[in-house]
Each structure stands twice: as C-alpha cells, then as structure tokens.
Amino acid sequence: MRMMSYSARVVLGLALGVAAILSCSNAFAQSDWQKKVVELIEANQFSDATAQLVSLRDLTPEEQIQKDWYIELMRRIRIEFRYSEAQIKEQLTQAGYDASDAKMREWESKRYLEMRAIDGERRYFKHAVANLARLDPELRPKRVVTEYDKQATAERLQNCADMIKASDGNGKLTHARHNVFTAIATIPANTVPSGELVKYWAPFPRTTCERQQDVKLISVDADRYEVSPETDLQRTVYMEKTAEKDKPVVFKLVFETTSYAQYFSQEFLVENVKPYDENSDVYKTYTAEYLPHMIKTDAMKKWAQEIVGDETNPVKKVSLLFDKIDATYPWASSNEYGTMPCIPEYVLREGHGDCGMLTLLLVSACRSVGVPAKWQSGWTMKKSGVCGMHDWGEVYYEGIGWVPIDMSYGKMKSDDPIIRDIYKSALDQYRLVINDSIGRPLFIPKKFFRSEPVDLQAGEIETKDGNLYFNKWDFQLTVETK
Questions:
Q1: What CATH topology corresponds to 266-424?
Q2: Exposure class string for 428-448: b at 16+ Cβ within 10 A, else e
Q3: Tens digits of per-residue pLDDT, 423-440?
Q4: What is the dihedral of CA 200, 203, 206, 211, to 10 degrees?
Q5: Is this prediction's pTM over 0.85?
Q6: What is the pLDDT of residues 221-237, one digit of tens each?
Q7: Do 113 and 107 touch, CB atoms closer than 8 A?
Q8: What pLDDT sits at residue 309?
Q9: Domain 171-259+439-481, CATH class in plain words
Q10: Which of 480, 451, 478 shows the shortest CA–CA distance to 252?
Q11: For residue 191, which of 461, 478, 479 has the smallest C-alpha distance?
C-alpha cells in the first residue's frame, strides 16, 4: 500500500533525515539537483546519482551537507544489501531452500526475499535468507524451534500470568527488580590513529518513567564525561578518550536502576477512560505528526480509520489496531533505520517490520485516529544477564495517563484471553528505558552524521575525521540483578 508518492516521501524523509542525523531541527528545501539525485537513488541508479553529486559546484554549506549525506546514504544501503545473487544462492542452498532463479524471482515479487537492483545488479539484504522462514507462509510452520526458544516462551508466559496475579489491574507497579548494568563500547586497536580524540555518546536511562526508578551512575571509564539532562528524550553520557597505538579504545559505563512490571486490564481502561481534552498539550503533542516516521497522511488516516470503523472508545480503537498489525505484519530483521525515508510506509509496502518499525506503524495509526501515542525504547533483560535491543510504546488515556504497549511482542500464544492480550496494556519488569522519542538532538552535538538517526541504543562514536559507523566498533550490555 502506498501512502503517498514514494518519491515525494523519499525527498521529505531524506531532508528531515539529514536534520535528525545531524541532531538539528532544520529541514532543508529541496533544489532541482537534490530532487534528481533522490529520483536516481530511488531507482537504484547509484552510479548516476554519484556522478551527479560529484559534478556539483558552488554549493551552500547546507547543500554540501545534503550532498555528503546522499553519498553516505548510498554507502550505508550497500552495506545493508551486501550479498550478490551468487552468494545468496549459496546461502539458500546451505539452508535447504530452493535456489532456482524461478523460486528466487517468486520470493522477490512477494517481498519475502529482500533485494535491490543497484546499478542493474541484484543485491540482497544481509538478513534476506534468515527472514525467509519468518515471511513465507509455507516456510514459517517448518521453522525449527530450539529448546532455548521454547523455554524462553514458557518463562514469558509464566511471567505474564504472575504479572496479572500480582496486579490490581489498575497499573500498580509490581515485581521490583534492582539491576546493575555494564555497558562497554570497544573500538579495535589502530582503527583510530594514536593520539586522536574519540568521542562517545553512551546510552543512559531515563528518570521520568515510573516503571524505572532509582537511576544512578556508578562508574565511568573515560578521560572526560558528562551526563545529559534528565529532560533529554534520548539520554546519553558523553565520554572522551585518546587513542593509543596498538591498543583498543574501550569505554565502560556502569549504572543501576530498579525496574517494575505494570499491568492495566482492558476492562479497567475501557470503563475508566474519559473523553480527551483536545486542547491539552499532551493531546496536541502526541496526536501530531513527527516527521518523517510518525505520519498522518491521508492514506494513513484512511487505513487506520477503516480498521477502527465506528468505534469511539480509544482503548478499543487501540485494541483493533494492535490486532490488525499483529495479524498482518510479522516480525523480521530490518534495514538500518537511517536508510529508510519513512518507516511506517516501509512496513505497509514490504509487509513486515522489526519491533521499532511495528511500533512506529502503531504510533502513526493511533495518532491518525485521535489517540495520543509515543515511542519508547531501550533494552530487554534476560535472567542470564544478556540484554537485547528492543522498542515498544505508550498510549495516553485521559483520566488514566500513559499506558505501556508492546506491539512486536503482540498477542501471546495462550488459551487465556487475558494473557493473550496482556501486551496491549502492560510491560514486564525486564526493561531498560533509554528513549522516549526518536531523532532527538544529542547533548553536546555531534559534528558528523549519526549512525542511527532514529533510535539510540548502542550510542554514537566519532573522531575529528568523521563518524564511526556500527561496523567499526562493538557494543555489549550486560546486567546483574541484585
């Protein structure tokens, strides 16, 4: 489904994307040359787009930034679509799939095997083969479920039951969990020349979410550091170190939180939600567009309205949207967000998305039918101490407040309808909240493009010569429960 002219959305998305990547709020006007370059990138004619960019002269500083970004964008897309057709055929064969040309064309046409014909050569997404069994309805039932996955599912279902049992259904905080996190960013030796200053914006927890309390910085391994204000919606600890010859650059951050589970019953919400005060700041802010990834295009409003129909209760509206997205758009590994001009439109067009992409679709749909909603993200925790990046959201109900929702966890596989729908209005205690929005300016601005202009989970690194993209360094987050 196309929400608007895709080329027009690419133009808008790239203009605003540059602003977000640079952590500033200005979107630049599009000149004729910029529109032409965007058309070439959209058509996967990267060589022609590059030639057009190289030929440009006498650009304004703002135009030079956009020129540099288009070049960087194509570089990043090539990293995402890194495999040739021969390499993908080999991966398909190793996985036991049909690697014939006919079958590949079929999967490509159905968007089960993600491909871009860059400069006339078929290039395949780095997770294309892994995503096949998630997207092809014929392959999905044949996926091998490991014992680890079975155990993790059983533990999650049991925790859902425990959350409901311990709660009053009215949002009472339960299952307090005291966490000590260790975050380590490592740049391999000699990646940065000796003597050069390295800047790192490390993720740091929010203090304004009631499900996350007692936030405390314990230690920092850096030559200099500064914690961003509590009001920052994408919170960081800014750190600096000087690179040394033959030694990796290692930043280490230790902090603690207390996290809680929270559950609101659907019955409580339906019965207690009040009509919205449409003049309130909360309503105006969280039903507005926040471009390019929280949209209220005519097509998005039409799509969302068809799902909710004549329903007027906002809780039931959200439930209908949740059910539709859960039933229609499976989870699959995604392209880096910085390469996508409009994430909700990608989900609708490609038919799938990861946790953040499904969340942005839900947020856009909610806002389009007059229900305030926002993004939230950070990390999930496992009992083993391993942490994983994750994105979810919150919905605002008048008279009740902000209620958590996890779109990508979706409906639980349970015979109990209350457990089945729990993530429409609950979150477990295994969460670390870093972000309450997307694409926000960083405390102590970056000079160069951000690696991740939308989310912020591993952080950002740069030197005097430029940004260090994710493939140049490693990040690990672990947690101990005290």
A1: C8orf32 fold (3.10.620)
A2: bbbbbbbbbbbbbbbbeebeb
A3: 999 999 999 999 999 999
A4: -170
A5: yes
A6: 999 999 999 999 999 99
A7: yes
A8: 98
A9: mainly beta
A10: 478
A11: 461
